[in-house]
Design goal:
Shape: globular
Largest sheet: 5 strands, mixed
Number of domains: 4
Distance between the termini: 64 Å
Number of strands: 13
CATH topology of the largest domain: Rossmann fold
Helix content: 25-40%
CATH class of the largest domain: Alpha Beta
Bound molecules: flavin mononucleotide, iron/sulfur cluster
Structural class: alpha/beta
Strand content: 5-15%
Strand order of the largest sheet: 10-9-13-11-12
């Protein structure tokens, strides 16, 4: 049976939902979500002569509590409303706005964050499900071909090519293969998936449906960090709306039916490792599995399993764009005037210096960036003008370390964090992370032993928590050898 064309399907949905496609009326979106809640955005009254709805943070966490005036083809964010609602906001509602102002990206994954009220109607008006409408018409092999051409890589940290992983699943005949979405995000300093879930959950649903279409999967689970309540609530609302509109069962776009369920984890860094998620969903102890077998062959309940990060699947919704935006989400925090979520083009031109400029940071004030948290490394100022490379960005968590940052204390604290978060399943990590903390009390004297220990942990740990636990230490000792005073080993472990 030939399904509706993408345009027909989207128009039918718009009609069914009672909203005309095209431009929307003037309204005001009050930014809520976790960023807004943290500063009591709910208490901000906006009596400005236009309908007010709640939205999530648009990535400008520094601006909370904030609101965006949305006019056809134009929007303007007003920051720090706790200091008073400025007259300019009401003026903007009347059409007297300054230059249109960017919030998060103008294209890409963040384009709807803070700019839609989360309703399916609003999402459809802003281009939602357009990519799935196309994918539902294509043969799976064709979707894989497009994906291969785009060269999208996984955004969970390892940047594994998405088309390769999907191809492995597509090749399996197993009738009960599954998709698992990794939205655990337990790594300190990373808050990108939370923003996506809270601000544009339909984009994740859409990416999942495209993945299922391309691989022949009909059953999916979304594993959301147990502490990410707002994200889970927003995603479940979106799921219910998508189901009611016939998007999940194939009625709306003609794709195959997919069931999607949500699962929550207890939190913890290792709970984001993919095989821990599988154990957790199965009700087993949350520890990594030995590999092989890989999840693509034997994952959830022994079935072939596709595991992708939430940002990866959101990025899948852009593969039919011409050209797809080669962007990465960078959660930026630390000594920075405008902390928040930045979507940056990794296009051969973007540098750390440009990223810092967006966030209002003078590069001369920066000692280093910590990229990748407890599994990461220090990026030094001499690298700031080098173009960013996708594969070096990990999950993207970036902490700006200003002139007063104590690099030795940060290094020791990350080492102690890894020791606490080690699940204890394998000896190199269980013992090694503890021993590393002790040796860091006097790195100059212990340097050879530190290097040898890190080599063993890197080679022999069961998962990448232990495997990468020495990375920031090696990086700090190479770049800041004189930063480390001798301390009491018990102090170092605090
Ligand atoms: C300790 C540890 C924590 C991890 N945490 C996450 C996480 O929070 N989210 C995530 O997507 N991947 C995380 N990963 C990577 C996953 O194991 C897996 O590679 C990823 O979900 C694959 O998705 P992708 O191919 O879309 O990147 C973690 C890995 C390790 C070793
Ligand atoms: S490397 Fe660490 S976290 Fe990973 S299995 Fe071994 S003990 Fe557990």
């Amino acid at each position: 049976m030939i399904g509706p064309t993408p345009t027909q399907a989207l128009r039918r949905l718009h009609d069914a939902l009672g909203a005309p496609p095209g431009e929307v009326e003037v309204h005001v979106l009050r930014h809520r979500g976790t960023c807004g809640d943290a500063v009591d955005a709910a208490a901000i009254t906006l009596d400005v002569g236009a309908p007010v709805a709640d939205a999530a943070c648009d990535g400008a966490c520094w601006a909370a509590p904030a609101a965006t005036v949305v006019r056809p083809g134009h929007r303007h964010r007003f920051a720090r409303l706790d200091r008073g609602v400025p007259d300019e906001l009401a003026a903007c509602v009347r059409g007297e706005c300054d230059e249109p102002q960017a919030g998060s990206g103008e294209a890409g994954l963040t384009v709807r964050l803070g700019r839609n009220d989360g309703s399916l109607t609003d999402v459809l008006t802003r281009g939602g499900y357009g990519a799935y409408a196309v994918a539902a018409m294509l043969q799976p092999a064709r979707i894989l071909e497009v994906l291969r051409g785009v060269g999208l890589t996984g955004r969970g940290g390892a940047h594994f090519p998405v088309a390769t992983k999907w191809g492995l699943l597509a090749a399996h005949e197993h009738p009960e293969k599954v998709l698992v979405v990794n939205a655990e995000e337990g790594e300190p300093g990373v808050f990108k998936d939370r923003h996506l879930l809270e601000g544009d959950p339909h984009r994740l649903v859409e990416g999942m449906l495209i993945a299922c279409r391309a691989t022949g999967i009909h059953e999916a689970y979304v594993y959301i960090n147990g502490q990410a309540r707002n994200g889970r609530d927003a995603f479940e609302r979106a799921l219910a709306d998508a189901a009611a509109a016939g998007i999940l069962d194939g009625t709306a776009f003609g794709g195959d039916p997919v069931t999607i369920e949500v699962r929550s984890g207890a939190g913890g860094y290792v709970c984001g490792e993919e095989s821990v998620i599988l154990n957790s969903i199965e009700g087993e102890r949350p520890v990594p599995r030995f590999k092989p077998p890989f999840a693509t062959d034997s994952g959830l309940w022994g079935r072939p399993t596709l595991i992708n990060n939430a940002e990866t699947l959101c990025a899948v919704t852009t593969i039919f764009d011409s050209p797809p935006p080669p962007t990465k989400l960078l959660p930026l925090s630390g000594d920075v005037p405008r902390p928040g979520l930045y979507e940056v083009p990794v296009d051969g031109n973007m540098t750390w210096a440009s990223v810092l400029a967006m966030a209002g940071v003078a590069p001369a004030r920066v000692q280093a960036l910590l990229l990748g948290g407890p599994s990461g490394r220090f990026v030094l100022p001499e690298e700031f003008d080098t173009p960013l490379e996708m594969r070096t960005l990990g999950a993207g968590g970036t902490v700006v370390l200003g002139p007063r940052a104590d690099i030795a204390a940060i290094t020791r604290s990350l080492a102690a964090y890894n020791a606490r978060e080690s699940c204890g399943e394998c000896t190199p990590c269980r013992e090694g992370t503890q021993r590393l903390v002790q040796l860091l009390a006097d790195p100059a004297t212990n340097r050879d032993r530190i290097d040898a220990l890190i080599e063993v942990m890197t080679e022999a740990s069961l998962c990448a928590l232990g495997g990468m636990a020495g990375r920031h230490v090696t990086s700090a000792l190479a770049a800041f050898p004189d930063a480390f005073e001798v301390t009491d080993p018990t102090e170092a472990s605090r």
